[in-house]
Amino acid sequence: MIDMALWIALALFCAAILLNFYRAVVGPSLPDRILAVDTMYMNSIALIVLFGIWVNNKDYFEAALLIAMLGFVSTIAICKYLLRGDIIE
Amino acid sequence: MIPPTRWLPMPVLSLLLLVVWLMLQQSVALGQWILGGLLAILIPMICRPFWERQPTIKRPLKLVGYVFRVLGDIVTANLQVSKLILDPRGRMRPAFVEYPLTLKGNFPITILASTITMTPGTVSAHLRLDGRTLLIHALDVGDINALIDDIHQRYERPLLEIFES
Amino acid sequence: MLETIIEGVIAFMLIAGGAFAFIGSLGLTHLKDFYMRLHGPSKTTTLGVGCTLIGSLIYFSREDGPIIQELLITIFAFITAPVSAHMLAKSALHHKLKPDPRTRGNPVELESEKPKHAVEEAPQGDSPLP
Prior knowledge:
The complex is a heterotrimer of chains A (about 90), B (about 160) and C (about 130). Chain A is mainly alpha-helical. Chain A has helices at about 1-25, 30-55, 60-85. Chain A has one domain (about 1-15, about 30-85). Chain A contains 3 helices and no strands. Chain A is flat. The termini of chain A are far apart. Chain C has one domain (about 1-100): Helix Hairpins. At the A-C interface, α1, α2 and α3 of A face α1, α3 and α4 of C.
């Protein structure tokens, strides 16, 4: 049962990342692209966790934690740059 | 809450750091307690100049109730937004709403803005520089005044009681 | 029996997480303007990833005791998602992105003003940056 669910969830997350990629390429404005990349890293966290379940190894969580932290900080930094033209005031 | 002392300028942050350290290490051995305790004392001492004054939580029990209410609302919010996105006719009524704030402190306003973003159909977009109005974008709203009233009753009133009563 | 129920819960969490994340990305792709697109990822994707993490937490907790590390990522995601949504909305307002014509309300931040740049540092092409 879990195998089946794992495959469905993997397929859904991959489709989600493809949609994000579409928006990141097409996106008419800069905030659109940032939003798409932001969503993409959120989805990739889930993808890594699912991979961890697949190979039955719980250490993959640390990679997920690192992606979560770096992704958040970089989103905020790019937004800051768009707002002020400067990251550290 | 816990009063700050010379060695622990921010007791709540220290406690949080210790708990997160123990959760990350996944053990409660004596060594981890000592190392975590050391970090919990050192980190707040080093980064105290960056921080604002710590807010005082007057009613911790109400805060727990608030957290559970928000968790429940997040689930309903997601079902609503999913329904709106999947609706093939795409009948949405987006609107910018200006929400008048009665909260004063920076920290309570931050919590209110985050709550608004996570709950049904609204994203907080901009806090005006005067700190009096919050600009909200709503995905599907019929009556704007009802939305403002709802946010006030449901989220701002409890936060006022928790932080500023 | 209990094993079956727990497996069912894990499977449900994984599929629900995937479905929520997919719907969020669908919203990101096909809604009309930026402010509406912001709703999908900020709420739905966060809950989707949270559901997946909780499913994985239950999965690994079955064998050797509770594993609470993954709760940390969930809490972190739920705290940071509103903050980045707020920052994105702020930068979109700063760039004066046009909202959908059906949008009611006309915030001051979106009203056009005279260009502040001097001629020699005027924005090039469509780029908002000088």
